[in-house]
Amino acid sequence: MSEVLTAPELSQQKPSAKFLPAFFVDIVELGQEFNSGELPAHMTYFPPIEEPYDPQYAVYARKTINELPPFSAQVGSDALFGDNRDIPVRIIQHDYRILEVHRRLISVLGHLQHDFRYRTPYNPHITIVDEEDARTKQGARLEMGGLSIVEKLTERGTWKVMAKIGLKGSYE
Questions:
Q1: DSSP secondary structure string, 117-158?
Q2: Least enclosed by CB within 10 Å: which of 81, 152, 153, 156?
Q3: Residues 6+ apart with CB under 8 A from 73
């Protein structure tokens, strides 16, 4: 007789997984980890993807965005995001270049499981970690040279930098 696994046993066998393509204000390094809830200031290019990370996703993303040149974007006004509208953010002024990166990521990641509400409409914003950080104050300009993909390591309760994808002439 084969063993039947219950839902709790199944979830212990395969932890839930998610990953996130994001621009980080601070330089992050491959393999660097951050405690859950302590990601540095960042702008998501795509909502959290509720599937395990596969390195092939970075290959596809790199192929589709690497030809785009780096650019700068301007930090705008304060806002509150999240389901409860309790997460302080600063809006990034809409720029066709941010929207182009986002659009290209949709073309390679859009089929993966994610909450569609968080990309339609796409509202680029920086999470506020330090109110006094001059780089994220209204009117500041951010140099957008690429993005990183971080994966939630549920067994450790951390996020880990799995890939760095530069725009043309930027970091890899």
A1: GGTSS---EEE-S-TT-GGGSTT-EEEE-EEEEEEEETTTTE
A2: 156
A3: 92, 93, 95, 97, 98, 124, 141, 142, 144
Structure pTM?
A: 0.85
Whole-angstrom distance, CA of residue 45 vs CA of residue 150: 12
Residue 19 host element (H or E): strand 18-24
Q: Where are the domains of the chain?
A: 39-166
Give the domain 39-166 fold. Cyclic Phosphodiesterase; Chain: A, (3.90.1140)
CB 52 within 8 A of CB 17: yes
SS3 of residue 100 by DSSP: helix
Q: Tokens 């997460």 identify what position?
A: 87
Q: What span, in angstroms and rounded, lies between the C-alpha atoms of 28 and 21?
A: 13
